[in-house]
């Protein structure tokens, strides 16, 4: 199996980001590292603390929206795999709101004690089991009713991942994905360089799914709804950089990926979408 970005680099990236993620998206217990949705753009000329609260609220709204699109009350209420769970915010969401038994898998070992702590704070310790693992090699067969990957598949070898999901999911089990997909190559380049995420195209995902015995079930484009998130994120990055008294050049370097992502979501060069696939293997 070929990782487009070496696995160790991805692991080191997320281990190194842990404290920054807690600062920006914490304090928890549900801490997310993914986009959010806004019906309209919140005021930008406000304090970093208010910006953070708005961003965290938008991340929760994206999960709530995905839950409706994916009919989570009947599809994400059993034994599920959170593939690339980060700090476990999504895992806690499925456990608290839908009674799911969640196996939370992250590539970053530093996340495990934090997920354990957050699950205890949320009162779902018995429902959330965290593991530090390369999810493409996670062991077992016919273990899960569903798997969910929130902006994590962009890091993984798609063909190998779908093949492994075909083995881990029970027949008829669903694989739910929220992620970014490139239409123009410059957006794949910026994501690979800044977030160690070699984005794929829709076609790549569909081919990988079909080869592994999955049938696409749902699709919803959320590009424009997530574009506002990146405007908010850019303003917060700028405010944090100024608090640290970083140079103008350093601030611009940090802002460019956020601005480009928003630009791509608006002009169609980059897309964000919610998808689901059904495991048709017997």
The overall strand count is 7
% residues in beta strands: 15-25%
CATH class: Alpha Beta
Secondary-structure content class: alpha/beta
Spell out the helices and strands N to C.
HHHEHEHEEHEHHEHHE
Mean pLDDT: 92
Low-confidence stretches: none
- Helix count from the secondary structure assignment: 10
CATH H-level homologous superfamily name: Vaccinia Virus protein VP39
How large, in whole angstroms, is the Cα Rg?
18 Å
What is the second-level CATH architecture? 3-Layer(aba) Sandwich
Main sheet characteristics:
7 strands, mixed
- The helix content, as a percent range, equals 40-55%
Distance separating the two termini: 24 Å
The CATH topology annotation reads as Rossmann fold
Strand order of the largest sheet: 3-2-1-4-5-7-6
Principal-axes geometry comes out as globular
Number of domains: 1
Could you explain the architecture of this structure?
The protein is an alpha/beta fold and 282 residues long. It has one domain: Vaccinia Virus protein VP39 (Rossmann fold). The chain is built from 10 helices and 7 strands. Helix 6 crosses helix 8 and helix 7 crosses helix 10. The longest helix is centred in the first third of the chain and has 22 residues. It starts with 6 loop residues before the first helix and ends with a strand. 44% of the residues are buried.
Features:
single chain, alpha/beta, seven-stranded mixed beta sheet, 282 residues, globular, Rossmann fold
């Amino acid at each position: 199996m070929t990782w487009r970005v070496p696995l160790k680099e991805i692991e080191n990236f997320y281990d190194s980001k842990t404290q920054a993620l807690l600062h920006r998206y914490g304090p928890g217990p549900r801490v997310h590292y993914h986009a959010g949705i806004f019906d309209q753009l919140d005021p930008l000329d406000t304090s970093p603390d208010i910006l953070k609260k708005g961003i965290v609220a938008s991340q929760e709204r994206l999960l709530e929206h995905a839950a409706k699109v994916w009919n989570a009350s009947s599809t994400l209420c059993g034994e599920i795999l959170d593939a690339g769970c980060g700090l476990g915010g999504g895992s806690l969401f499925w456990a608290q709101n839908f009674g799911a038994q969640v196996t939370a898998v992250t590539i970053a070992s530093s996340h495990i004690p934090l997920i354990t702590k957050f699950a205890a704070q949320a009162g779902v310790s018995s429902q959330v089991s965290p593991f530090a693992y390369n999810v493409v090699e996670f062991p077992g067969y016919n273990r899960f009713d569903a798997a969910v990957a929130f902006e994590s598949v962009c890091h993984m070898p798609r063909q190998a991942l779908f093949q492994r999901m075909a083995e881990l999911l029970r027949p008829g089990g669903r694989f739910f994905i929220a992620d970014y997909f490139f239409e123009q190559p410059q957006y794949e380049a910026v994501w690979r360089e800044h977030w160690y995420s070699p984005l794929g195209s829709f076609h790549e995902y569909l081919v990988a799914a079909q080869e592994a015995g999955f049938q696409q079930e749902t699709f919803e484009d959320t590009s424009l709804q997530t574009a506002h998130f990146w405007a908010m994120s850019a303003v917060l990055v700028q405010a944090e950089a100024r608090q640290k008294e970083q140079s103008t050049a350093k601030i611009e370097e940090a802002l460019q990926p956020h601005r480009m992502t928003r630009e791509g979501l608006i002009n169609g060069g980059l897309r964000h979408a919610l998808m689901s696939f059904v495991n048709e293997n017997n």
